[in-house]
Design goal:
With 217 residues, the protein is of the alpha/beta class. The chain contains six helices and nine strands, in the order H-H-E-E-H-E-H-E-H-E-E-H-E-E-E. Helix 1 packs antiparallel against helix 2, helix 1 packs across helix 3 and helix 2 crosses helix 4.
Amino acid sequence: MIDYKAARTKMVDNQIRTTDVTSHSVLNAFLTVQREEFVPAKSKALAYIDNDINLKSGRYLMEPSPLAKLIQLAAVQQGDVVLEIGCGTGYASAILSMLGGSVVALESDEELAAQATETLARLGYDNVAVVTGELEKGYAPEAPFDVIFVHGAVELVPEALLEQLRDGGRLVTVQGYGNASQARLYIRELGKTSERGVFNTSVKPLPGFRKAREFVF
């Protein structure tokens, strides 16, 4: 029988604290949310390994270290309205819900969205609403958001997402693929967006979000 609470503590101590995650609220959220509840049944024993977990074809639960660093970068405050792009089974949604006021968890895959809805409701994360739709379009009906968190690597950030940020709002993503990728922070101020690279990291890509290919004659 696996002691998941002990495994969770070990994950935080060995994988997250050691990679410059110092926010007490972020660390507490990772200590609290039961990661094993958000992975496929066959993967429960692997819930706390330092690796991505395959949810279904092409979709992954991000490994703990980069996920924690990205969430810390988002600097979610109590009362913030958060949009998560590509929530999968809802694990990061649960983390974000402990930090902010409410979370809109957007998912394009209806099967994953149904799993997220069931798991989050069963575990009592009542301030998360799972919605389905195209990830690149965000979720305009609930905009503007204080924070937009993109769960996976993208090639570009669509303007449609940046326009859904409140003044002073932040978007956090990993841009680029493989070893050339970088965590980036976008900040919306007075209708304009500034951005900066913060740290290098490599995470699995989120489907879509690719630049249009140019024809070369």
